[in-house]
Q: What sequence folds into this?
């Protein structure tokens, strides 16, 4: 369970990214966070695995106070929280399997990880992860030879190989074309249902969020303005979240 | 019609620029002709040229096809060894230079390292050879050391390009999965660098093989020693054998180097 | 003998099968993943063996003969010359550098320009896409070019120094040959990477290959050709110091003289002035190249 208790975040340059956020996310939920860029979606996600620090309030994950973690404890905590980025963040010049295996590194003894000697279990686990996202046959190809969608799947497999309880996704489909984006969201949905992993994904495109997430959190200028089931979202609520009428760029499939 | 006329009048006027560059080149050429002092052939010059040419097609076969200490195959192996060890030394020595001169690591202080690298690049190589002769005497060891120091200039310059190209997104991802700094370097930075660095080193090896062939002329071992002693003694057939040795080895190295580097770039 | 052979082949086949099995992974749901053959371990092993071989024959041999202490004791000698170059720095020698420096620049200009001019027809003849796919001429020329490129300028200068009397002429000839080898290669690589879309229709209008080349290819490659020439000018200027070894004129000659006289203060003046000229030319050519491409 992830709990935000009166969380605020102010950046050193004075920008208030989040203001008094209170949230509770149950295990196994699929939550989409929507809002304009700069509304604080990204900050909200990064607070969960402490990529940035809170300035006020506490975040509890399964009862653990995330703010207090440091050093080894923080790294150990991060093992259970996977993260997927907009820009994939793969090592382009090495094979897909090596990229996925990198997720096993923090659990390995130092000398083994330094020499790149992965155990059979690690290799199996990584291959299974690739199989789950449907690109097993690409395992030994160099990452830079894959398409954008395939690269994002590798990143997703890398996260799965970590065996996480929570997956955070920061704009995972923003740089993909609509059809690929749809497929990646389907992967997220399947992982959520089959592996019972909590998924927090922030995105700009309303239609994709409505289609896949069961719960929506709308953020406007650092404040949570909507939190509820996707079916309850109305035009008015969207207007409140976006602060204006929806435009073409807020929707992935424009002809819908 | 006016538009066409206007377009014609507004056409880029390159004639003046072309005329200027042509006249500059012409001037430089004529000015440079002044430097040719053609002292003529040696009295024996034509004869020597003829003998050399004939020797080229009839080199000393016994020198080419033996494994004696002073035979061409053995000396070419020594030359390859000088280039190989020298390139490795240069590749290792260049690492600190490159990391201390890359903009994304030291920021605006990069010019200090860059200046040092330029200085090394412009240092005449037989001066370096001379310095090492004072350390390890004439011989292949001196050659390897010279090649090593000589390679720093180019290798570190190419390393810098590779390092400045590093994609830092992967570090963020590794951070998010709880990797330590050492693990981030091992799994995030090194895999990005290896292929490019190996390709740079192979390229430099190719150049160094050529450099190592002439090192002997300044007394630093390799095939060059034979080349210059044979020529000084007028043993053209021996010199021709050395030249053929160089040609064969350099062609082989060139072939494999190009092939390997292509493979490294394309994966 | 025959049984032994068949035994070996059997073992080998079993070994290959074993490798094949090791590369296959079976996942939980029964799907297979086969790792492609990787030779990186073999390559690493070969490199290690080669390294050990050269290390033993060159470095270990040296230490066995002279001892490691000898090497350590002599290491300061390396800096000896360097320190002399700094402490005995003799600026009053500068006027003596000017004449030879001008000569060096002139040698480089002539050598580069002549080499470049010579390279154009050969580059055309070496371009497979211009000469046609089945024409054997390009391969033959490429082979001869790669032989020419195997030798550095110094080797050519050395050969010429036995034929011609000492002087700049040797240096110019050697520079021309060396430059010719490199520029021709760079030029035919540029031409072969070109899109010949414009060349063939012009040839079809009845123009000769040369006319078509003038109309369709030259405008595309002129800028890059200039920058290749400038780049070679830099290389030739840098290598001019070496030519002194065979008395081929220019800055190399006085450098050699001063080194033999052990006047390291003068040597460092020569080195620094060459560095200065190289830097100026480098910046100038960088500026020109930016404008050309």
A:
């Amino acid at each position: 369970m992830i709990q935000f208790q009166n969380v605020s975040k102010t950046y050193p340059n004075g920008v208030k990214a989040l203001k008094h956020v209170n949230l509770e996310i149950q295990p196994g939920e699929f939550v989409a966070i929507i809002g304009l860029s700069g509304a604080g979606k990204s900050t909200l996600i990064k607070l969960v695995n402490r990529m940035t620090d809170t300035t006020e309030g506490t975040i509890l994950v399964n009862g653990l106070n995330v703010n207090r973690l440091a050093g080894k404890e923080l790294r150990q905590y991060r093992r259970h929280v996977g993260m997927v980025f907009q820009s994939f963040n793969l090592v382009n010049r090495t094979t897909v399997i090596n990229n996925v295996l990198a997720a096993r590194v923090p659990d390995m003894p130092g000398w083994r990880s330094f020499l790149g000697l992965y155990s059979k279990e690690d290799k199996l686990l990584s291959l299974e992860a690739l199989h789950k996202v449907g690109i097993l046959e690409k395992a030994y190809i160099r990452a830079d030879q894959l398409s954008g969608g395939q690269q994002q799947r590798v990143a997703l497999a890398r996260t799965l190989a970590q065996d996480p309880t929570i997956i955070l996704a920061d704009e995972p489909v923003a740089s993909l074309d609509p059809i690929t984006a749809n497929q990646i969201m389907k992967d997220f949905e399947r992982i959520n249902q089959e592996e019972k992993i909590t998924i927090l994904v922030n995105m700009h495109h309303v239609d994709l969020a409505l289609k896949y997430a069961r719960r929506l959190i709308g953020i406007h200028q650092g404040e949570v303005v909507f939190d509820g089931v996707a079916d309850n979202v109305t035009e008015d609520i969207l207007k409140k979240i976006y602060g204006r009428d929806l435009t073409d760029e807020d929707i992935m499939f424009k002809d819908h | 019609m006016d538009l066409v006329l206007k377009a014609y009048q507004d056409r880029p006027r390159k004639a003046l620029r072309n005329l200027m560059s042509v006249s500059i080149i012409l001037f430089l050429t004529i000015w440079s002709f002044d430097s040719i002092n053609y002292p003529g052939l040696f009295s024996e010059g034509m004869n020597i040229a003829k003998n050399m040419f004939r020797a080229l097609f009839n080199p000393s076969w016994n020198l080419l096809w033996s494994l004696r200490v002073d035979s061409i195959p053995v000396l070419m192996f020594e030359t390859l060894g000088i280039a190989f060890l020298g390139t490795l030394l240069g590749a290792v020595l260049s690492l600190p230079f490159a990391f201390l001169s890359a903009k994304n690591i030291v920021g605006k202080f990069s010019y200090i390292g860059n200046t040092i690298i330029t200085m090394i690049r412009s240092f005449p190589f037989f001066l370096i050879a001379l310095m090492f002769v004072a350390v390890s005497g004439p011989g292949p060891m001196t050659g390897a050391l010279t090649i090593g120091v000589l390679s720093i200039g180019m290798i570190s310059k190419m390393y810098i390009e590779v390092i400045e190209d590093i994609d830092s997104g992967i570090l963020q991802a590794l951070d998010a999965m709880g990797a330590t700094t050492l693990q981030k370097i091992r799994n995030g930075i090194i895999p990005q660098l290896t292929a490019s660095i190996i390709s740079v080193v192979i390229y430099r090896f190719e150049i160094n093989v050529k450099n190592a062939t002439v090192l002997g002329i300044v007394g630093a071992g390799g095939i060059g020693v034979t080349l210059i002693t044979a020529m000084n003694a007028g043993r053209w057939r021996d010199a021709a054998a050395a030249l053929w040795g160089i040609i064969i080895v350099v062609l082989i190295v060139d072939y494999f180097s190009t092939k390997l580097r292509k493979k490294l770039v394309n994966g | 003998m025959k049984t032994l052979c068949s035994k070996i082949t059997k073992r080998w086949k079993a070994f290959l099968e074993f490798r094949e099995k090791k590369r296959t992974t079976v996942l939980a749901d029964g799907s297979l993943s086969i790792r492609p053959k990787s030779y990186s371990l073999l390559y690493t092993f070969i490199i290690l063996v080669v390294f050990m071989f050269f290390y033993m024959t060159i470095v270990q041999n040296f230490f066995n003969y002279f001892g490691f202490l000898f090497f350590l004791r002599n290491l300061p000698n390396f800096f000896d010359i360097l320190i002399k170059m700094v402490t005995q720095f003799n600026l009053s020698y500068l006027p003596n550098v000017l004449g030879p420096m001008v000569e060096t620049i002139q040698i480089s200009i002539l050598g580069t320009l002549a080499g470049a001019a010579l390279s154009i027809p050969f580059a055309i003849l070496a371009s497979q896409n211009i000469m046609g796919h089945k024409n054997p001429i390009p391969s033959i020329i490429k082979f001869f070019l790669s032989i020419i490129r195997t030798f550095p300028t110094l080797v050519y200068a050395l050969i010429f120094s036995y034929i011609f009397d000492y002087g700049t002429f040797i240096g110019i000839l050697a520079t021309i040959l060396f430059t010719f080898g490199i520029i021709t290669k760079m030029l035919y690589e540029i031409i072969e990477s070109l899109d010949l879309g414009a060349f063939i229709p012009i040839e079809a209008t009845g123009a000769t290959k040369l006319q078509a080349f003038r109309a369709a290819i030259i405008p595309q490659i002129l800028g890059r050709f200039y920058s290749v020439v400038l780049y070679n000018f830099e290389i030739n200027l840098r290598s001019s110091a070496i030519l002194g070894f065979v008395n081929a004129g220019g800055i190399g000659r006085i450098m050699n003289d001063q080194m033999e006289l052990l006047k390291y203060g003068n040597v460092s003046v020569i080195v620094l002035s060459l560095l200065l000229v190289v830097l100026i030319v480098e910046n100038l050519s960088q500026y020109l190249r930016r404008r050309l491409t």
